[in-house]
Amino acid sequence: MTQHNYALTINGQRVFSSDTAQAINPATEAPICDYPLATREHLEQAVSAAKKAFPAWAATPITERQQMVSQLGDLIEANQEAFINLLITEQGKGRAAAEWEIGGSVYWCREIAKQSLDEEVVSRDGDNEIVTRYTPIGVIGGITPWNFPLLLAVWKIAPALVAGNTMVLKPSPYTPLCTLWFGELAQTVLPPGVLNILSGGNELGQWITEHPAIGKIAFTGSTATGRKVMQSAATNLKRLTLELGGNDPAIVLPDVDAKAIAKDLFWASFANSSQFCVACKRMYVHEDVYDDVARELVAYAKTVKVGNGMEAGTELGPLQNKMQYDKVSQLLADSRDAGLKFLLGGTPEQKPGYFIPVTLVDNPPEDSRVVVEEAFGPVLPLLKYRDIDDVIARANNTEYGLAATVWGKDLEKASAIARRIEAGTVWVNHVHVFAPNIAFGGHKQSGVGIENSLHGLAEYCNMQTVMRKALA
Ligand code: NAD
To answer: Does 260 have pLDDT greater than 60?
Structure first.
């Protein structure tokens, strides 16, 4: 697929732009191919196509819309191997991780396609009736990041279309290829204008969020950009779903067997090279087991194969882009300058590709940058605690509230702690479990609204109450 001539999809057509940019393979820093940058004119064409397609799509019986969304999953599955290779090439992740994302995209299309929101009869008395129903909003603007490019696009496209909306979606300029190709394939199933895909830079994102004919923005990205999105969306009071950043804590209780859970703790933090909104980014370990957990984590980390995702057995790839590589390198340099101690890693190697070594920081001060900031790279501070109330206060002492984990043999105790964490998802003794029927969203500045589940589907709808009374 890398030889493919990637195009925008507008009104069912492949459209090219005189402006282009280069997609870069993060494992080698070699160019993959050029892709089109949409102009304002392209956005106007896409929005008017989506607007024109909306009435017929909204009037299409939901069973037919569901069937078409399910067929989008079939299209990905039929091209699974090519999608996996393209994802590894443009995003950098290892093969197993790419299989998880592409398989997940198929699964989400099929499962979201089974969802619907029934009318609620509030009361009925003879001919008198009060009914609340769910109606589509219109044209949805979707904006996605570079860590899970296809899956996070599907998380938006599938419910938006099932609910009867049409869409203009923009992938990240760092990882546009899987989404552009998916958009093209989707035209074999969907009527023209229902799903339009425009690749472009950050300014295109801003134009989408300001556009007066778009009724809702479904955005996944950083908290800083989320604030800008909310501001520009105010122009016409757009509905918003914002899935933003996190600084997720893990609390490891004193009754754990460090060796038994080291693998799970490692992946809680380092999956996708920690470019995961719900990666554990601060690990609080009880002082009784701190040394054991630190030792076992280091031992496990040394068994993990880091490299080019195309090489067999690679478990962790590079960071996805130079901007993020420079940001994390600077964070490590600042940490070294501050005299922090590393149990592992700490200094990027000088070799092609945006590789940052797995880095474990030994009990840094609570106010150090590695603790306070979302690194979005493989840098994990291990922090000692003694008292439960104190560690819960430290875990909650952040502007973020995306997810958290608690690890302990005493399930009642661990669950009681989980309920005191200010986060949208708290996992006890496991991590990163997502499903189309499980509500996912952030507290505090990690987001607004919910994705997945019927709550997520409802966010692509207006609620309408119709009350009728018979005339005498
Ligand atoms: P980002 O905010 O830089 O970019 C996300 C998208 O927004 C890109 O498509 C970008 O082009 C676009 N964009 C940039 N400026 C814009 C503007 N002014 N208006 C509209 N759109 C604009 O985020 P990123 O670096 O691509 O992704 C990493 C971030 O995403 C991390 O903070 C991570 O935690 C977060 N994330 C959150 C979730 C979640 O579900 N909560 C999931 C994945 C990633």
So the answer is: yes
